[in-house]
Amino acid sequence: MRDYIVLDNVGFDYVSQRGRVAALQDAGMTIGRGDSVAIVGPSGCGKSTVLKLIAGLLSPSAGEVRVGGGEVRGPLTNVGMAFQNPLLLPWRTVADNVLLPFELLPGSHGSRRELAERAQGLLEKVGLRDFGNKYPWELSGGMQQRVSLCRALVHNPEILLLDEPFGSLDAFTRETLWLATQDLWTARDCTLVLVTHDIREAVFLSNTVFVMSPRPGRIVYSEHVNFPRPRMLAACYTERFGEIFRSIRRHVGGEEVVDL
Amino acid sequence: MRTTILGPLLALLAVIVAWEAVVSALRLPPQVLPGPSLVLTTLWMARAPILEHSAVTLLRTLVGFGLGIVVGVGLGLAIGYWRIVNAALSPLVTAFYCLPKAAVVPIFLLWVGLGTRPAVLTSLSIAFFPILVNVVTGLSTIDPDLADLFRSFGGRKRQIFWKVGLPGSLPYFFASLRVAGPSALVGVVIAEMLAASNGLGYVMLLAGSNFNMGLMFAVVLMMAALGGLTYVACAYADRKFAWWAYRAK
Amino acid sequence: MGWRRLSTAQRDTIGRLLPPLVAVAIVVVGWEFATQVARVPALLLPDLRDVASTLWESRQSILGHALVTLQRTAVGLAVGIIVGVSLGLAVGYSAIIYAAIYPLLTAFYCIPKQALVPIFVVWVGFGTPPAIITAVITAFFPVMVNVATGVSTINPDLADLLKSFGGSKKQIFLKVGIPTSLPYFFSSLRVSGISALIGVVVSEMIASREGVGYMVLMAGVEFRTPLLFAYVVTSALLGIAIYALFTVADRRLAWWAYRGNR
Questions:
Q1: I need a surface site. Which of A24, A79, B162, C75 has the fewest CB within 10 A?
Q2: Homologous superfamily, domain B37-248
Q3: What's CA A127's distance to the chain center, in Å?
């Protein structure tokens, strides 16, 4: 489905003590089902707002957000989210943290054992096989973020929304997690929307990179990334990668601004 | 474990020794400062009645403390969950905090009589406050992104409250007990000094009117013991039930 | 109605003031109901208007006693602050002093300070002196703890940085430790002030012939309930005044600590 997620001339205003601030204005984008896209842009341009609009956590002040053909009117139940802060509950084990969505989503989802196996399967896939019984503070930042990713996928969502998930990690851990994310996405039939300020990350993980303008944000540029899957880290150092990178970089900060 | 006990023990010993030395060297009369020997002798000779009165005070403290927990947690949860309750009650609770509870003891006396009841009432009205404040604070420290995460999984406000707010506020609750416990004792003692015919507070007042310094200091010692017991028990509960909060830091 | 014509700020203020006013109104209505309709005896709950008229008629003597209490509280608080700050700085500066004193302090904390009033009476007599001493004893503790905490919670990286610039321990203490402890200090003043007031009131109830505490006790003993309630209200007003005073002072003088959080 080519227009699985659609932002149609969306505007969003934040209301604060000082009045209204337009975070998004005339923002439009179309994302195909099963695709992997990234949104990059300068700080404060409204990237996170786009994710929350797609998830139905916010309602647009103008325009429409559609998912799967229907307008989004409230929190969707087929999304998984992860943020920069892993936000694990410190009083629960890793496994119990991963299983959290099942306690919240309406309806029954299977027996305890089935669910536990599902969680364990995900943890194995990200290299945390023996950590199910540990507590979050026993894990490093990168490991906690991997748990957060597992939690976002345990209920087989159709859409995976990642909001700067690797922002607080060092460069080496980040690269490991790019590969883990790619593995998880490839193994599932879900649509990935990644928000990041790291253009390399965006190019590595996605098929389309959208560039947002500074506030009030709208999409000013998009670039297709045609590298074959599965992608290796080595791809980041090829000439072609550098071209795509520069092409995108030129547009960050407004219309074609940076002279590279 | 050994070192944490040894330090305070040595310090205590040092204080006792210095105290005795000062009293003997300056030949201070008991009215000015009774030496540890006099205090301990008085304590020993009057141990039966002192223990009896201590038991009364302890019982009242425990009841007042328990009720203070119920009220503090109950009100705290209500204030933390419903914003309108917060808006309506917070100023009133603050005003109640500003009121010296000792001044309310005569009113309690008129309402419920002498002895245990006003003591428990006073104790509860002092002890509930730190618990209330901490529970409310604990409930309000929910990361907004976490709240969004919950909503994205279809979680309602009630679920966020139960699954994140309550467990998250446990460390705050237990931390407040360390303050509330001794406060409960203070409430009981004040009430006993004004409106009771038994209990350590009453004995204190009686000893004072007889200028019996040895007995007064003995009572202080017992109060310190009761207060210390309460404090240690609360610190233990804190470490046992909210250990994960300290590790997470 | 005209709701939409109000500015956000005005709506905010109404939203903040209305619920507690409604709560107070409910209390007043409940009180009137109890005294007028349910006919609760005046001995237990005086008529609201009797309390009000007593407050007005006896305002001279009420003000007199309130002033006495306030003066005692102010002196006790001032001395308590000086003691608290000095001890706090000493404890925060030296880890050795801290380790030595900490267990004693905890024991001290566990003793109900107000219970020491009879001892003070034996030492210094009736009236104002024991009240002030009780106030000092109750008030210095929170100040000391907060100042010590503030002084000793200096970021270790920052300390290293200053040392690399050649700063001595004393300089770090003066230039960073003390300013860092200011917000802690101000936030402890409020608690101290209320504690000092409580100390004075208890002392007055046991060993004084003037002051709000004494009058509360007297009115209670003589079953003069409207007067009792009038003085209880007065003591609450004193507490609220102290609380408000230090809240304002805190926000004005240590505003920079709240910059990020507002």
A1: B162
A2: MetI-like (1.10.3720.10)
A3: 20
